[in-house]
Design a protein that fits this description.
The complex is a heterodimer.
Chain A (H helix, E strand, L loop, with lengths): L2 E5 L2 E4 L5 E8 L5 E7 L6 E8 L2 E4 L6 E6 L2 E6 L8 E8 L6 E2 L3 E5 L1
Parallel strand pairs in A: 2-11
Antiparallel strand pairs in A: 1-3, 3-8, 4-5, 4-9, 5-6, 7-8, 9-10, 9-11
Chain B lengths: L8 E5 L4 E6 L9 E6 L6 E6 L4 E2 L4 E4 L5 E6 L8 E7 L15 E6 L1
Classes of the chains: A mainly beta, B mainly beta.
């Protein structure tokens, strides 16, 4: 069966520190992968998506970057966090016409 | 890209049917309608999807109008645990890279 793992569940980081959030998928090949962010009380904002290894598309210019070093691994990074980077980060995957499966999310608080 | 419009909030009495509407007037012929829900501090959960025919599963029913410009998610017997934000989305994106675009969804509150 297909599963998606996202960690950590919660993270508190100081302003100016680096960030690395990891997402891995099991049980499928060549999935489309996505990173979303949700600010408090807001909808889901698409940050990045990837259709293959090394292929990253950015939807919103920001202080973040994404990488896909392996087929089923998607990483969200930042060199220097800002207060505005706080939020709930979600990884998701999809294959063709099937629905999207989301991870459990990481709640990031930048202090 | 087709976009969706949903009411920001609704409420429903426990045990009654909850009918959540969604407008997607610019949907293309090959685009599916998907519904998800998000309980506080969790990732969105898939509920149901459809192309043109009405669909039903163990969680809900999806009614799509004949012109496909709108749909309704029906929770036949709402419970307190159905309190969540419900998102209606359509598949968008060129070249096979399907990019789900989520609006703010509908916050459904089920009350006793």
């Amino acid at each position: 069966s297909q599963t998606i793992h996202q960690w950590p569940a919660t993270l508190v980081q100081p302003v100016g520190s680096p960030l690395s959030l990891e997402c891995t998928v099991e049980g499928t090949s060549n999935p489309n992968l996505y990173w979303y962010r949700q600010a408090a009380g807001r909808g889901l904002q698409l940050l990045f998506y990837s259709v293959g290894i090394g292929q990253i598309s950015s939807e919103v210019p920001q202080n973040l970057s994404a990488s896909r070093p392996q087929d089923r691994q998607f990483i969200l990074s930042s060199k220097k966090l800002l207060l505005s980077d706080s939020g709930f980060y979600l990884c998701a995957w999809s294959v063709d016409t099937y629905g999207y499966t989301f991870g459990s999310g990481t709640r990031l608080t930048v202090v | 890209d087709a976009k969706t419009t949903q009411p920001p909030s609704m409420d429903c009495a426990e045990g009654r049917a909850a009918n959540l509407p969604c407008n997607h007037s610019t949907i293309s012929g090959n685009e599916y309608v998907y519904w998800y829900r998000q309980i506080h501090s969790q990732g969105p959960q898939y509920i149901i999807h459809g192309l043109k025919n009405n669909e039903t599963n163990e969680m809900a029913s999806l009614i799509i109008t004949e012109d496909r410009k709108s749909s309704t998610l029906i929770l036949p017997h709402a419970t307190l645990r159905d309190t969540a934000v419900y998102y209606c989305i359509v598949r968008v994106g060129p070249g096979g890279s399907y990019i789900p675009t989520f609006g703010r969804g509908t916050s459904l509150i089920v009350h006793p």
